[in-house]
User: What shape does this take?
Amino acid sequence: MREDRYEPIDSGRPSPVGARNVVELPNLSSGRLADLLAAASGPGQPHELVGEPDARAAFTAVAATWPSRRRRLVRTPAVVAATAVATLMVATTGLAAASELPGPAGRAVQGLLGSVGVTIASTPAPGPGSSGAPAAPATASYAAPATEAHAPTGTARVTPAHGACVAPPGSSGATEGSLEAASCTLVSGHHLSNPVASVTPDRPVSRVAHPVTSPSGGGGSTRPVHQGSSRSGQGSVPITAPVVATGAGSMRGGNLSGAGSTCPTSPAASVTDPATDPAASATDPAASTTGPASTGDTVRSVTGCRNRVGHHRTRAGRGAAATTGSSTATDPAASTTGPASTTDPASTTDPASTTA
Amino acid sequence: MLDFGGTLEAAQRGDEEAFARLWREYHPGLLRYLRIKAAPVAEDLAADIWVRVLRALPGFVGDEPGFRGWLYTTARNRLTDWYRSGERRTDVIEHSSLVLLASRTDVEAEAAEHSATDQAVALIGELPPDQAEAVMLRIVVGMDVARVADIMGRTPGSVRVLCHRGLRRLEQKLLQAQGEPSGVGDARAAHAVVTHGNSATVPAREGQRLHA
Assistant: This one.
């Protein structure tokens, strides 16, 4: 092919390589080389095809091991069905767990499911700086006094010191963002041996529900937060002190329980040991509702009790300062250690906890 | 002309005759390719390669160039295995075990029986290995540059260079065989002067080496 020949570019100056080094492609269309290549790519010769019977035998042997077309047709839908079932199970599990998971995980699951069109109506969203703390529902408005409607109701009750949170009678479940006051027993280590000390105040709990500015944002929403005080006095002390707390770091030292919910009070799960959790120690006025000055005793906050209806979860060691500081600073009435919430007057007037 | 799609589909269903058509179409080229890479065991390797292809044949999806590339990729992988393994280890044969047998036919006549295709492949096989492989896959088998580069693990530009150099060297060999002084060559290529369509050859000038 003459057109394949590379001609040197005449640039007016002598070529550094010289004309003899011009690359010339071989002629593949005619000539001996073309004949050679045509012969090399010619049809099969008889001696090259002598192995056809062996190839046929190999084909017969190997084809017998092939999966049948019918089996493949059956297997493919089975795989598809199994995959669909597995996906459905994962999605269902995620949907069910979305309301129980902590804030970031819940939001992650919510976003994941939302991308496939599944909407989770009630997933708490924590505010900034308080991971895992529930936030105000998106439907709550800032100035709406509707928090009164969500005010905790019910009576305080002291249950035997077995660590069970018992829903108050008449509380028929908490709605989103609302907290049904539930009596919860504080387990206080060495005082467990004195069940007589349990006090049962069968008087109504003050309905305290004030809209509080939520520092966590959420559109300036308000929400009632239950913050039960926990202390260890002469025995188990019931905690039914509903408060209005901020969105960030709320519900420290208290537990929330909806109707019929119980809270196992395993010391490891529900009681924050001040020795291991400095943030939850009694010396932290923001962390504990009863400071050591009032009781002189080790205070353990009941944590880990999950409100399974209201989608709130107590957390120890997180956002403690935000809880008390924000809530009590804006509303002293939201003090968690109000006289109505405890039967020990001496321990309820802890200024450190109410005005921190 | 082979209807590749229908033939392949029939072979994938288990039609032996369809597979035989595929085999007759592709086996000669595969055997020639193996002959320039591993001549002593070309037949055995080809049989093994076809067994490998057969095992995966029901799952193959593609057109004719895809099938060709798949076949030669399998062949090259098998060659690599053969090079790496001890299969190519030369066995030691005692001299006393050799038996000298007289040839029943004339050597020249036997050489004349070889087809032009065999001689052409043999001439290509005298090229450096990379050039020979590039010329075989690109020119003789007829695959495009990109696929050849993929099979050889090289860049397309490298494949083009190898093809060009190989063709140039072949041309020099042919000119050398004609008695034209055209540089370094080997007189053994003289018998590879091929006329298209028949097996006419020029007797080799054995032992004669041409030097530029």
Remarks:
- Chain A has nine helices and nine strands.
- Chain A touches chain B at residues 23, 25-26, 28, 32-45, 48-49, 51-52, 54-56, 58-60, 62-63, 65-67, 69 (CB under 8 Å).
